[in-house]
Amino acid sequence: MKVQIDSRYAYETDLEDIEVGNEMVLPGGMGFQDSWTGIVTSLEPAYDGPCRKAIGLSRRRKQVEAERDALAQVKITGWRAGETFSKPCRQCGEARVYVVEEVNKIGRPTHVISTGCSCGAPRSGAGLGSANAFRHFMIDPAL
């Protein structure tokens, strides 16, 4: 079966339960050194030639959509240096306070730093070079 990825690329897969919106792991090449992930955008690509084989499925549509919804909820502008927010500590899961250290011209945080945590996790900082990096930082407890 062939699938179209990111509305641009065609790949073959042996998986029969693939649906539009699933995220697949794809082989490197065409400028990608390592494997990469893309979203299935069609189950019938217009391209009918030979295709490379997809490595496998990484996430189902439901998980992809949930992440997309969570990312869309993140406020990315209007922040000020010195503002605080909390997110779970990656070691113990308890709320940990972060301070916005720097913002860009539109008020998107470009650098944040955490306080130490009661579990012993030390202070840590994060440089956030793009709106997408900030969104992922805000929803991912491991960051």
Question: How would you describe this protein?
Answer:
- This protein is of the alpha+beta class and 143 residues long.
- The protein folds into two domains: 2-66, no CATH class; 84-139.
- The protein is built from two helices and ten strands; from the N terminus they run ββββββαββββα.
- A six-stranded mixed beta sheet has the order 5-2-1-4-3-6. The protein has a four-stranded antiparallel beta sheet with strand order 7-8-9-10, with helices on one face.
- A hairpin with a 3-residue loop joins strand 1 and strand 2.
- The two termini are 37 Å apart.
Strand order of the largest sheet: 5-2-1-4-3-6
The stretches of 5 or more residues where confidence is low (pLDDT under 50) are none
The chain-level mean pLDDT equals: 92
- Main β-sheet, in a few words? 6 strands, mixed
Percent range for β-strand residues: 25-35%
Helix and strand pattern: EEEEEEHEEEEH
User: How many beta-strand runs?
Assistant: 10
Sum up the overall morphology in one term. elongated
- Which percent range fits the helix content? 10-25%
